Amino acid sequence: MAKTHAIRITEFGGPEKLKWEEVDLPAPGAGELLLRQTACGLNYVDTYQRSGLYPLTLPSGLGLEAAAVVEAVGPGVTGFKPGDRVGYNAAPAGAYAERRVYPAAKAVKLPDGIDDKTAAAMLLRGMTVEYLIRRTFPVKKGQTVLFHAAAGGLGLIAGQWLSHLGVTVIGTVGSDEKARIAREHGYHHVINYRTENFVARVKEITGGKGVPVVYDGVGKDVFMASLDCLSLRGMMVTFGNASGPVPTIEPLILSQKGSLFLTRPSLGHYTSTREELLESAQALFDIVLSGAVKVPVNQTYPLKDTAQAHRDLEARRTTGATVLLP
């Protein structure tokens, strides 16, 4: 059997649990592709899986997103051939690898105008932004929205896309440097939550009305205060836990704060069919190819140094997207 190298975990915990190992590489089975990975995406969800917050069956690979070249196709695969450039952003985990086998049904072809590093940096985040702003809460031109973690990889895509749609975008960040980066990527108002009360600032910006939607990938640290940023019948969209899981709340709180809506969506549920997957990917490719959204890859690490990349991500030392290079 062929061999390759991959990052593996045998127990949950911190970045030190990530091990660079030689692993077996099986031939592609029915419906599968054998991929040579060219760039791997780093996402906060990877840290949740590593820590056990989102449990995996151990031992396991890690990583959900990569750009790759098809080396071989398994029985029954149509639509792909050796040499095709592809990308993916979904389970099974194991993207942190030099080569791997992956389900053809979850891969998409990459357009010529998008390079491998950009693709690996944008597929998970960009398609998350797509469903959040086009389907979970379909934003309308002229609205004002609040997006937390504005200087993160997902936040920078969201700021540009929302601004392009004619939306006034308020973002939160944790430093003046990150505020500068957010402003450069479409945010009209940027709040440093370490030095400002973001609820008071949102109310000031909106003339006391609040916003119709809050997009929150931060979780525990901002969740309850975010409810106070919403206008009557506003929607709280909590889609991540960078600061920890959100607290349990009583449904009555939603009534008391203005008949609010609360949703906890996931990319998998918004790309659950092949048709949805392809439509979401195409919407992302179109907006990036148009030039309206640029995807900054601000950090790269050798794949074998993934543990350090995780440390830097969790310490908030990164901005924009980070890509791991096999």
From TrEMBL:
CDD domains linked: QOR2
GO cellular component, as recorded: cytosol
Pfam families: ADH_N, ADH_zinc_N
Entry-linked SUPFAM superfamilies: GroES-like, NAD(P)-binding Rossmann-fold domains
Domain of life: Bacteria
Residues covered by the Enoyl reductase (ER) domain: 13-324
Keywords: NADP, Oxidoreductase
One function term, GO molecular function aspect: zinc ion binding
The protein's name: Quinone oxidoreductase
Organism from which the protein derives: Hypericibacter adhaerens
